[in-house]
Amino acid sequence: MARQDALISADAHVNEPPDLWTARLPSRWAGRAPRMERFEQGDAWVMEGALDPINFGANCNVGLPPEQRPAWIPWEAVRAGGHVPSARVEEQIADGIGAEVLYPTPRVSNQLWWNAEDPDFHVACIGAYNDWLSEFCAHDPSRLWGVAMLPNAGVDGALDELHRALALPGMRGALIGQYPHGGEVLDRVDDPLWAALQEAGVPLSIHVGFATGPQGDKSRMKPSQASGAARFFDAPVRVTQFIEGGVFDRFPELHLVLVEVDSSWLPYLAEQLDDRFGRANPATRADIGRQPSEYFSDNILSTFITDRYGIANRHAVGVTQMMWSTDYPHSGSDWPNSRRSIDEQFAGVPDDERALMLGGNAERLYGAR
Fold this sequence. Notes:
35% of the residues lie in helices and 13% in strands. The protein is α/β, with parallel strands linked by helices and 369 residues long.
């Protein structure tokens, strides 16, 4: 592990600084760059295509009691650990964390993926984020493990950004919010990206779910999106697409990480896919080489924050496929008391299994780079 006896969080976050895009995008896009503005309630991101300003109070309120967690805050109230790498390392040490896999703020990144009408601008915005994240991780690459966002304006652009980002310091994974060619429908046109990820030994992540609409569009909200407790609603769709679309047959060493969706539901989905696969006419069922459930143990991993049911049923999920996370600095995190939370969730779990879920699996997946 990154630090002996330390934990590895397979899903943590940064807070993007106000000048990330205004300072990094070429001057021709100065008027369109995502920017932070001050409102009466607090500060928020203003992004092209978003229907409302994107506030971020819940994305940086770790360590505060619930009654002190407003949805809107000024940037000055954001914890330094979200955007200053030296402060982040101090926060890790305070919580006994040896390394963290770092993701963007979800609603900010989702808007970047959703609004890809201008491919050049879209790719530039994502590249600017990856550059900033690499600089953040370069402070201590042994502790700060970056996951690069990939654009969805064509597979060639996604491939170019993958190769560019992986050459930067600190980058260990790749993240998509739509398929590289754009949208929610799996297509073999994206196979070159899956091939490149497999060749590089880099895991592919989907954080919570795909970006299916602009931020602030309540008319498109699915019922299951109304509560964070149902955040796993999109992941079964992507798992089914990858399995039944034959992605893991064509790329058997590719690893798909389902981030911040917990683990309890995976055995049920595997059972149902197997059942329906077995009942289908062989002439019309998915053209895959194995039972659907077999891909869960070889190609699919999930991260969880609080999932006592998943831990109790870890052998059905797959002990080697589960990765604990803090979600720091978001409201789901127990920082700086992660070990106390772990002891409550993992009571009775053997040390070897505990070690895998609390860091060993993440080390195996990300640690080689």
